[in-house]
Amino acid sequence: MPYFRITLMRSGIGLPEKTQGVLKALGLRKRMTTVYHPVTSSVAGQIMRIKELVDVKEVGTALNKKQMREARRPAPGYYVERRGTAELEPPQ
Amino acid sequence: MFGPFRLTNPLSGGLLWKIPWRLSRHQKYRQRERLRKVDSIVATLDTALARQGESMRKLVRWKAEMPTEEEMLPKDKYTVFDRKVKRYRKAIHKLPKWTRVSQRLNPPGF
């Protein structure tokens, strides 16, 4: 199921109440927040109201908050060859 | 001395707002980029909905009526109609919130 990935790039401060209401309805509370919404005409209509403020991409799956955070995490710089606990266990 | 309420010439009374009457070429460049960004978002919405077999009246009207950045005249990109201004045109940076609103069409003939 395709989703719209919507990121608020420009703040809605000082814009009409209706525009700010659309941001609230989509769950965009402050700048650089990302939300996923299914591709429907109602969501597309909401995006049309705030098209100057957001960045929109069509993606295959929606990520939750934890997954988005993991995606941002840099590589740790090492990899685990084998665990030490396997060595310590007595042979069967 | 410092901060938002420091004593500067514009703040100490009188009419001294030094906003240039025309855009710089860098402001014009960023304005074009913003227009293109909105075009790309409309295109994204259109292709995503078309893939679902849906369409939207608002999008159909936008595509039919609104010129894209390439199709717009420089006059419409950087200036807007204003009935109070001599020759009926003012630079777009005089428009309140001009970097966050779409202003593409102007009255025909002006």
TrEMBL record, chain A:
Cellular component GO terms held in the UniProt record: large ribosomal subunit; mitochondrion
Domain Large ribosomal subunit protein uL30-like ferredoxin-like fold, chain residue ranges per copy: 4-54
One Gene Ontology term of the molecular function aspect: structural constituent of ribosome
Any GO BP annotation: translation
Region (Disordered): 67-92
UniProt feature coiled coil, ranges: none
Subcellular location: Mitochondrion
Record keywords: Mitochondrion, Ribonucleoprotein, Ribosomal protein
InterPro entries listed in its UniProt record: Ribo_uL30_ferredoxin-like_sf (IPR036919), Ribosomal_uL30_bac-type (IPR005996), Ribosomal_uL30_ferredoxin-like (IPR016082)
Family under the similarity heading: Belongs to the universal ribosomal protein uL30 family.
General function of this protein: Component of the mitochondrial ribosome (mitoribosome), a dedicated translation machinery responsible for the synthesis of mitochondrial genome-encoded proteins, including at least some of the essential transmembrane subunits of the mitochondrial respiratory chain. The mitoribosomes are attached to the mitochondrial inner membrane and translation products are cotranslationally integrated into the membrane.
Protein name from the UniProt record: Large ribosomal subunit protein uL30m
UniProtKB/TrEMBL annotation, chain B:
Cell compartment(s), UniProt: Mitochondrion
Any one of the GO BP annotations: mitochondrial translation
Pfam family, one: L31
Membrane-traversing stretches: none
GO terms of molecular function: structural constituent of ribosome
Domain of life: Eukaryota
CC terms in the record's Gene Ontology section: mitochondrial large ribosomal subunit
Keywords attached to this entry: Mitochondrion, Ribonucleoprotein, Ribosomal protein
Signal peptide: none
InterPro entries in the record: Ribosomal_mL60 (IPR016340)
The keyword DNA damage appears for this protein: no
Quaternary assembly: Component of the mitochondrial large ribosomal subunit.
Name listed for the protein in its UniProt record: Large ribosomal subunit protein mL60
